[in-house]
């Protein structure tokens, strides 16, 4: 165990003066033009590795970047997060909302030659609901059963109307594994999906090699011969690899943008539904007391994190649903618990902790996460709270917190899900995978049931807004800010789309042919 070095108040003032916020904007080298090279290999450096290649048991939403290249899903999402056809071409709810019929794409096979059909969908949903260690079972709980109506049609029989189901099936719960591979002992290393690419080499924590699958149903989505994905947790390594021509794209740290653009690197602001969070296990340490959780909000200078560490590539919000989401309540301001160390100390005293307390945070090896941890550690120390940190690799940290339920608190970026009810269910319900202590409130549970049963968009939005008010009142966790991470690309890259959850799928990405 080691403690992250505290970022003292004096040093933070120096950083504020020296690191003025950057205005997020594109710049650097211009994009190449001309035809795409179908033989090219697109090389993307990811900041974190993969927890496992089993999409039903993968423990981190950051795994999606790795998973969705090789595992296709029943439903896809468009650039604004709306459900669109994937392996399913259409779906409709029954009159009372307790069934959903889905029409499947015909002529699709898994990478091992197994046909994709209604029987495969039924087998996958049943596995996702029951496999040991499933991370998606809570999202599929409303699904009572799946009936095969025809080779290309299935019916989801629901325990109650479940408006979130199409978008739930656009995430890992809707990822399709070849049923013939369910029992493969090496499935976590050798995936068998029906996606755009096959995995041809995998070094855990170091590198994944993908090559184009034959006869993918959407040929416009596959415009390169393959994708190589080295894992570089260090942002300096990513930038150097990009400048040296070893990779074609990566997410940068905001502080690197000026340097990258000066060196001719093309930089574009990303889009994301992810947020940086400071998430306590509310059954550990002193976090069961809402006054302590509110004190944590008041103790952290969130705006300084955006201005100094994120260099302006972020926006404050107090909700785990982004502004463009129908669940985001516009009546809640971005800072309901403003930075106020005196108020934090008062709340701690009211909770019987005038002398403060100590807790352990799990922090990844990412330099960006380390910097945020250091700043927060200093803020907490100023009100008498001692934060120690256990530093883990990115691929280990979510398993440790969510699966093994170790550590008092998790710090990091993530959290975005296609449907708002997925986010609230996973993070704030007793059996949510991302709620290791199982803490909730009766009001949060009641509202979640309403959200899931309500199909009318306006009424559903009202229930979600009430959930956000309950979230803020109970200070379930601290939403630090929403990042808009800068994406760096080589000039040869064509048609790259960053993806709303900061987890690109690389559909249609291409590289310009040599002139």
Largest sheet: 7 strands, mixed
In helices, the fraction of residues equals: 25-40%
The CATH superfamily name of the largest domain is Dipeptide-binding Protein, Domain 3
| Estimated radius of gyration | 23 Å
According to CATH, what is the class of the largest domain? Alpha Beta
Q: How far apart lie the N and C ends?
A: 53 Å
CATH architecture of the largest domain: Roll
What portion of the residues fall into strands of 2 or more residues? 15-25%
Spans of 5+ residues with little confidence (pLDDT < 50)? 1-23
Helix tally equals 14
Oligomeric state, counting identical vs distinct chains: single chain
Secondary structural class:
alpha+beta
Number of strands: 21
Keywords: Signal, Transport
Pfam family, one: SBP_bac_5
Protein name: ABC transporter substrate-binding protein
Domain Solute-binding protein family: 84-420
Short recap of the structure:
Keywords: Signal, Transport. With 515 residues, this protein is of the alpha+beta class.
What does this structure look like?
It is a single chain. The protein contains 14 helices and 21 strands. 27% of the residues lie in helices and 20% in strands. With 515 residues, the protein is of the alpha+beta class. The strands form 5 sheets. The chain has a 7-stranded mixed β-sheet with strand order 8-9-10-1-11-19-12. A 6-stranded mixed β-sheet has the order 14-18-13-17-15-16. Strand 15, helix 10 and strand 16 form a beta-alpha-beta unit.
């Amino acid at each position: 165990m080691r403690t992250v070095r505290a970022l003292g108040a004096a040093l933070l003032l120096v950083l504020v003066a020296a690191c003025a916020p950057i205005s997020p904007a594109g710049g650097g080298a211009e994009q190449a033009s001309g035809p795409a090279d179908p033989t090219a290999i697109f090389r993307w450096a990811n900041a974190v590795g993969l927890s496992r290649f089993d999409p039903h048991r993968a423990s981190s939403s950051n795994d999606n970047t790795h998973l969705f290249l090789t595992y296709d899903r029943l439903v896809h999402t468009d650039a604004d997060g709306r459900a669109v056809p994937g392996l399913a071409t259409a779906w409709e709810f029954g009159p009372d909302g307790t069934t959903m019929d889905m029409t499947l794409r015909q002529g699709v096979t898994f990478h091992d030659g197994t046909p994709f059909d209604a029987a495969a969908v039924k087998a996958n949903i049943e596995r996702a609901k029951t496999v040991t260690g499933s991370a998606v079972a809570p999202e599929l709980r409303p699904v009572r059963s799946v009936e095969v109506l025809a080779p290309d049609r299935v019916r989801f029989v629901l325990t109650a109307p479940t408006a979130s189901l199409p978008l739930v099936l656009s995430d890992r719960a809707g990822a399709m594994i070849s049923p013939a591979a369910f029992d493969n002992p090496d499935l976590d290393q050798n995936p068998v999906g029906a996606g755009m690419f096959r995995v041809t080499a995998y070094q855990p924590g170091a590198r994944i090699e993908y090559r184009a699958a034959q006869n993918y149903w959407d040929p416009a989505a596959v415009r390169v011969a393959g994708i190589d994905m080295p894992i570089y947790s260090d942002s300096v390594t990513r930038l150097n690899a990009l400048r040296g021509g070893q990779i074609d794209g990566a997410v940068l740290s905001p502080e690197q943008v000026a340097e990258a653009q000066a060196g001719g690197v093309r930089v574009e602001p990303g889009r994301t539904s992810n947020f940086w969070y400071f998430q306590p296990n509310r059954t550990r340490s002193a976090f069961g007391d809402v006054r302590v959780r509110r004190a944590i909000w008041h103790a952290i200078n969130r705006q300084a994190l955006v201005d100094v560490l994120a260099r302006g590539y972020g926006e404050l919000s107090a909700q785990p649903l982004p502004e463009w989401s129908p669940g985001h309540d516009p009546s809640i301001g971005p800072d309901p618990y403003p930075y106020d160390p005196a108020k934090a100390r008062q709340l701690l005293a009211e909770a019987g902790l005038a002398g403060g307390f100590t807790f352990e945070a799990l922090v990844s090896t990412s330099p960006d996460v380390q910097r945020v941890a250091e700043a927060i550690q200093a803020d907490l120390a100023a009100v008498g709270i001692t934060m120690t940190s256990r530093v883990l690799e990115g691929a280990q940290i979510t398993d440790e917190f969510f699966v093994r339920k170790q550590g008092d608190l998790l710090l990091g970026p993530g959290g975005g899900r296609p449907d708002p009810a997925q986010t609230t269910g996973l993070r704030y319900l007793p059996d949510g995978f991302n709620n290791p202590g199982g803490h909730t409130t009766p009001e949060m549970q009641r509202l979640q049931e309403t959200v899931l049963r309500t199909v009318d968009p306006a009424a559903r939005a009202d229930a979600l807004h009430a959930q956000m008010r309950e979230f803020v009142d109970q200070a379930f966790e601290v939403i630090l800010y929403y990042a808009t991470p800068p994406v760096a690309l080589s000039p040869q890259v064509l048609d790259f789309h960053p993806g709303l959850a900061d987890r690109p799928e690389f559909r249609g990405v291409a590289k310009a042919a040599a002139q």
